[in-house]
C-alpha cells in the first residue's frame, strides 16, 4: 500500500496501484491515471467504458465481465482493446478508481 | 537477508512475467473446448499475446456447421458422477449439455461461436491443424471466418517462439 499525491490530493493506492477508496476518485484523477498508463487523452469512447465500470462496481460490488462491458457500453471488443491496450478490464478499472476485477471472463 | 519459504520459488518481483501463450485445443466436447477458450481470453485480458491452435477433434469448435452443437460427454468421465450405463442412455448428453449451457449463460460465459468471435476480436490468432484438416478432408471454407489459416505443426512451433505452450 502506498499514498501518493495526485493533483494536490493525498490518495491511497493498493499494492497494484488501484485506488484504495473509490470515493477518492474524480474525473481529473482518472485523466491523471490514464496518462500514467500511457493511454493519453480520454475520449468519449473511453468514458463510456470507464463510467460503466464504475456504475457496475458501485451497484454490484465487482467490475463487469468483458462481455457485459461490451454489450452495455456499446464499445465492441476490438475497439475496447484499442482503447485500453494490454488488458482493458484491468486498465479501465484502475482509471475508473475501482478495485482490480476478479472475474475470469 | 530474506529467507526462501518455498523450494526454488523466486520472489514475486524477480519472476519474468509471461508475455505470450500458445494454447492447443485438442478435444471436441463442450467441456474439452471451453478451458482452452477461457484461458486464451484470460490471457488477452491480462495483456498477453495469445495464439489458439485447434487440432484433432478440437477442430469441432471452429467448424462452421458444427460449432453450435458441441455436447458434454456423459460417458467415460467419472467426475460427472453419472454411472456409465445411465450416461449412455439417449438424451443424457443433451440434458447435461443444456444444464451446462444454462449455467454458463448465468456466469456470462458466451456460447462457443460468440466466444470464438470475441477472442479473435481481442487480437488472438486462431489456426487449424493441417494434419487433421487433411485427415478429415476439410478445407478452409468449412471453418468459421475467425480461423486465420491452416498451418502445420512446424509453423505452429515457429509462431510460438517465446510463448508458453499449453495443451488442452
Question: What does this protein structure show overall?
Answer:
The complex is a heterodimer of chains A (105) and B (168). Chain A has 105 residues and is mainly alpha-helical. Helices cover 48% and strands 10% of the residues of chain A. Chain A has a single domain (2-95), classed as Arc Repressor Mutant, subunit A. Chain A has a two-stranded antiparallel sheet. The radius of gyration of chain A is 13 Å and the shape is globular. The N and C termini of chain A lie far apart (27 Å). The mean pLDDT of chain A is 91. Helices cover 35% and strands 14% of the residues of chain B. In chain B, strands 4-3-2-1-5 form a five-stranded parallel β-sheet. Chain B has six helices and five strands, in the order βαβαααβαβαβ. With 168 residues, chain B is of the alpha/beta class. Chain B has a domain at 20-72 and 111-167: Hypothetical Protein Ychn, Chain: A. Chains A and B meet through helix 3, helix 4 and helix 5 of A and helix 1 of B.
Task: Note the topology.
The complex is a heterodimer of chains A (105) and B (168).
Chain A: E1 2-6, E2 9-13, H1 27-36, H2 44-60, H3 66-73, H4 77-83, H5 88-95
Helix pairs in contact in A: 2-3
Chain B: E1 20-25, H1 30-45, E2 49-54, H2 84-87, H3 92-106, H4 112-121, E3 125-129, H5 130-135, E4 149-151, H6 153-159, E5 164-167
Parallel strand pairs in B: 1-2, 1-5, 2-3, 3-4
Compact summary:
By secondary structure, chain A is mainly alpha-helical. Helices cover 48% and strands 10% of the residues of chain A. Chain A has five helices and two strands.
Amino acid at each position: 500500500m502506498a499514498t501518493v499525491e495526485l493533483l494536490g490530493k493525498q490518495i491511497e493506492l493498493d499494492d497494484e496501484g488501484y485506488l484504495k477508496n473509490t470515493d477518492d476518485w474524480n474525473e481529473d484523477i482518472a485523466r491523471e491515471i490514464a496518462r500514467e498508463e500511457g493511454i493519453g487523452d480520454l475520449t468519449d469512447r473511453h468514458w463510456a467504458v470507464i463510467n460503466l465500470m464504475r456504475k457496475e462496481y458501485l451497484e454490484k460490488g465487482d467490475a463487469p465481465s468483458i462481455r457485459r462491458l461490451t454489450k452495455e457500453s456499446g464499445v465492441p471488443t476490438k475497439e475496447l482493446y484499442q482503447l485500453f491496450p494490454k488488458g482493458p478490464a484491468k486498465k479501465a478499472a484502475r482509471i475508473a478508481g475501482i478495485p482490480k476485477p476478479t472475474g475470469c471472463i | 537477508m530474506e529467507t526462501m519459504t518455498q523450494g526454488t520459488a523466486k520472489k514475486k518481483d524477480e519472476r519474468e512475467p509471461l508475455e505470450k501463450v500458445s494454447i492447443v485445443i485438442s478435444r471436441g466436447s463442450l467441456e474439452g473446448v471451453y478451458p482452452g477458450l477461457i484461458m486464451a481470453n484470460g490471457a488477452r485480458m491480462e495483456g498477453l499475446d495469445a495464439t489458439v491452435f485447434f487440432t484433432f477433434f478440437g477442430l469441432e469448435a471452429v467448424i462452421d456447421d458444427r460449432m453450435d452443437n458441441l455436447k458434454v460427454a456423459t460417458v467415460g468421465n467419472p467426475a460427472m458422477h453419472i454411472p456409465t450405463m445411465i450416461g449412455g442412455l439417449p438424451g443424457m448428453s443433451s440434458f447435461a449439455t443444456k444444464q451446462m449451457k444454462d449455467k454458463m449463460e448465468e456466469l456470462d460465459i458466451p456460447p462457443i461461436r460468440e466466444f470464438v468471435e470475441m477472442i479473435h476480436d481481442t487480437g488472438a490468432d486462431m489456426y487449424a491443424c493441417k494434419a487433421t484438416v487433411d485427415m478429415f478432408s476439410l478445407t478452409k471454407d468449412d471453418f468459421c471466418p475467425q480461423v486465420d489459416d491452416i498451418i502445420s505443426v512446424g509453423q505452429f512451433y515457429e509462431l510460438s517462439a517465446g510463448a508458453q505452450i499449453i495443451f488442452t
